[in-house]
Amino acid sequence: MRRLKLTQKLVLSFLSILVSYFLISWILYHKPFDKHGLTNTDGHRGKSSIQTALQGTLYDNEKRENRQQDRILDFETEKNFFTTRSSIINPLNHSLLISPRDFCGNDVTILIVVLSEFTNLVRRKTIRNTWASTLEKPEGVRIAFIFGQQSAKKWNDRLEEESQKYQDIIKYDFPDIYSNLILKSLSILRWATDHCKNVNFVMKVDDDVFIMTSRLHSYFERLYPKRILRGHYNAHYTVLRDGKWLVTRDQYPFSEFPPYIAGGAYIMSLDVAETLFEAAKRVPLLPIEDAFITGILAKITGITIFSDGQFLTQFAHENLEIQSTICSKSYGSVLAILLGAPDEHSISKLMLLVNKCYREVQRLQALYGPKPPWRQH
């Protein structure tokens, strides 16, 4: 008899818990909250801990389901996705509006093209006065800036004036907006293969990167100028489904990009530039230019990418009093440094500081050789 009563109590307790669970679930799904999750329709602030926990569980389950979906897609569609289409889907035949004349003669072996926004006037001036200046730039190296069509006529006019003054501007007729960054980067490959057929290497650089130009020849002379694609290696980079760098599942159905080279600065031999550009005509474009060009296109075309420690991904500082640290970075074999700073003038100031230190390093190397004096013993 006692066992029967105990069993009845356990059953009733279980049913009570089950009813409570379904009641809470019903409240959770049918009691709307404002979009910020701060007040419900009855005016009460916040969520109960039970609601928060249940929502968190549901969100985690959804994430697991999405990852599982991505894994299934990886298995089922990878072979079909990572291939060139049978016909051209991206002509990539935008008109060339501005191009420097007689830019790549027979003596030019290295072409550097800088991605820049028109409004970054101070950065371009600083680059021309530092690592792209004639004092720093070795023979056989050409440096240009690339743009698309500007939204305002006065900006296009000023860009034309800048071109006349410096003869280092490349401009195509696609709108120069962030979503067209992939077109801008691919246009570097196109311009190089069309106008610099004698160069061995092409280097893509963002305008917040400092290049140790005097080290270029010693760096490139050890590389055979075929099937080269090098820079800072990104592996297992998760695809973002929202925010500034979002890529939809329709655009790219997998959870991770193939390994690729970070877009701040990367180098390739001219044959690779031509191969990747031609492949891009037959592959759906993605807005993340570095992952698309050096990851997806490289995988499709069988180009092997190489991780190179001489490319620093970020040297970010809001405090610009960092000369000793920068000097230690500049003294080694570093070729490219990404300069993170909060605004246009801070980036330029940081670039000038790097340049000052770099010149001092060059002076010390002339006196003491590869090792700095503080490391002689």
Automatic annotation (TrEMBL):
<keyword id="KW-0328">Glycosyltransferase</keyword>
<keyword id="KW-0325">Glycoprotein</keyword>
<keyword id="KW-1133">Transmembrane helix</keyword>
<dbReference type="GO" id="GO:0006493">
    <property type="term" value="P:protein O-linked glycosylation"/>
</dbReference>
<keyword id="KW-0735">Signal-anchor</keyword>
<feature type="transmembrane region" description="Helical">
    <location>
        <begin position="12"/>
        <end position="29"/>
    </location>
</feature>
<keyword id="KW-0808">Transferase</keyword>
<keyword id="KW-0812">Transmembrane</keyword>
<dbReference type="InterPro" id="IPR002659">
    <property type="entry name" value="Glyco_trans_31"/>
</dbReference>
<keyword id="KW-0333">Golgi apparatus</keyword>
<comment type="similarity">
    <text>Belongs to the glycosyltransferase 31 family.</text>
</comment>
<protein>
    <recommendedName>
        <fullName>Hexosyltransferase</fullName>
        <ecNumber>2.4.1.-</ecNumber>
    </recommendedName>
</protein>
<dbReference type="GO" id="GO:0000139">
    <property type="term" value="C:Golgi membrane"/>
</dbReference>
<dbReference type="Pfam" id="PF01762">
    <property type="entry name" value="Galactosyl_T"/>
</dbReference>
<dbReference type="GO" id="GO:0016758">
    <property type="term" value="F:hexosyltransferase activity"/>
</dbReference>
<keyword id="KW-0472">Membrane</keyword>
